[in-house]
Amino acid sequence: MDLQFERIQSGSHRHLQDLLDLYVESFPNEERRTTSELLRMLNVQEMYFTAVLVEEVVVGFVVYWKFDQFRYIEHLAIYSAHRRKGFGDAILKQLQNEGKPLLLEVEIPYDSTSAQRVGFYNRAGFNALPVYYHQPPYRKGEALVPMLLFSDRTDWDADLLRVSMEQFQERVYYWYSRS
Q: In this structure, which topology does domain 3-177 adopt according to CATH?
């Protein structure tokens, strides 16, 4: 499958508005930034808000962060018309080709949809890491969100995992304290 990743770094990007609509409909408020916050962050060096295209057709997006020791996948969504065609798995494989361990948060299964999401990541070779985990809030005053922390690797050194979690939480979630 030939995927193209097209990084979005401008509010006038040709695919941005449609992808923002998908972003809002795919993630509950407490699991995403406001649209204006996301737009302000498009030029953050480590963050890649990326349109995913197949044969010039946008099938979804992935937001991921590049850190020295790992990659953190913040959001991944596929348009409903393109689901169950292997695009999500292909996106994960393309990110794995960078050779760095991948980390991502998955909601704790509470219904059939969230259980399917966990199953998707399990089938793609990801598993929950044995850590107690809460997603930090995206905005001041919001609550922590209980989640599972998944990775495509199970051989994390405990100290490296702790440092990696601190690093992505500080950069991804606590940016608002610096803006």
A: Aminopeptidase (3.40.630)
